[in-house]
Amino acid sequence: MWLTTPIYNEIIENNTISYEVVEGPQIKESTMMVGTRLPRLSETCEVKIIDDQKFYVSDGVYFKEVIEDNTVWYEVVGEN
Fold it and tell me: Please, which pLDDT band fits residue 29 given cuts at 50, 70 and 90?
């Protein structure tokens, strides 16, 4: 499965900086190492509950939701 990672385009208008998300490079999901974080997952991910913890699984790769600095990331925690 291929995932598109976003790239942020900086916009400066009226002395204000903002960012818009634009499509970025694609990476092969199954080649990611444990600890790799993605800003979003494929829509085909399954949700699995293991030992009262929620995991997202896609093509045998297990992700866990991580919230850091008010940003949601999906971190690779293992592979089946």
Answer: low
Contact yes or no for 43/52 (Cβ under 8 A): no
CA gap 44, 67 in Å, rounded: 21
Its pTM surpasses 0.70: no
| Angle in degrees, CA 28, 5, 59, rounded to 5 | 35
C-alpha distances out from residue 56 to 31, 47, 74, 77, 78, Å: 16, 5, 8, 10, 11
Judged against a pLDDT cut of 80, whether residue 38 lies above it is answered with yes
25: amino acid identity, one letter: P
- Give the amino acid at 73: W
